């Protein structure tokens, strides 16, 4: 019986605290931060090169389907964005493209610093500065877990959207939505 309970809790733990807060996503003025869709593994392989997707951890078929479903769900709810910014990593760029929410702009400050944590503070400040300069735009930023955690304190799952608002020079989390792969 204990084994069954442990198995149950371990299976629901990843969903713990991820409310489907579409109201926060739909609010005018929300800044949406999204972790790229499902790309199995952690980090990037040795020999990673930014300009060569074959050297990176990429979306699999399930991740590509997840990205399309997220875009469909956002469009279906009438969520529009003024700008889609993405990390230059192939898994983030492909996610942003598959969302089909508008033109995608690569922003190097959204690149993962998983392999070099010393970049965390500088990149986080740069992203916050870019957001502040574009506060009158509805933004969707597609990035990585480490970046989103640095900006919000939230540890997002693959494909999860964290809705935020600009408050006193920082991002305040207002809700989260996860469309499972």
Summarize this structure as a short list of keywords or feature phrases.
single chain; 181 residues; alpha/beta; Rossmann fold; disordered N terminus
Q: What does this entry look like structurally?
A:
The structure is a single chain. By secondary structure, the chain is an alpha/beta fold. It has one domain (19-177): Phosphoglycerate mutase-like (Rossmann fold), CATH 3.40.50.1240. Helices cover 35% and strands 18% of the residues. It is built from 6 helices and 6 strands; from the N terminus they run H-H-E-H-E-H-E-H-E-H-E-E. The protein has helices at 2-12, 22-26, 61-76, 90-99, 120-133, 145-152; strands at 31-35, 83-86, 104-106, 139-143, 161-167, 170-177. A 6-stranded mixed β-sheet has the order 3-2-4-1-5-6, with helices on both faces. Helix 5 (120-133) packs across helix 6. The radius of gyration is 16 Å and the shape is globular. The chain starts with a helix and ends with a strand.
Characterize this entry briefly.
The chain is of the alpha/beta class.
> What would you call the shape?
globular
Residue runs with pLDDT of under 50 for 5 or more positions: 2-16
Q: What's the helix-strand series?
A: HHEHEHEHEHEE
Class by alpha and beta content: alpha/beta
Tell me how many strands there are: 6
What percent of the residues sit in helical stretches (DSSP H or I)? 25-40%
End-to-end separation in angstroms reads 30 Å
Top CATH class: Alpha Beta
Second rung of CATH, namely the architecture: 3-Layer(aba) Sandwich
Total count of domains: 1
Query: What is the overall pLDDT average?
Result: 90
Q: Trace the largest sheet across and list its strands.
A: 3-2-4-1-5-6
**Which sheet architecture does the biggest sheet show?**
6 strands, mixed
| Count of DSSP H/I helices | 6
SS strand fraction = 15-25%
CATH topology: Rossmann fold
- Rg result: 16 Å
Oligomer: single chain
Supply the CATH superfamily name: Phosphoglycerate mutase-like
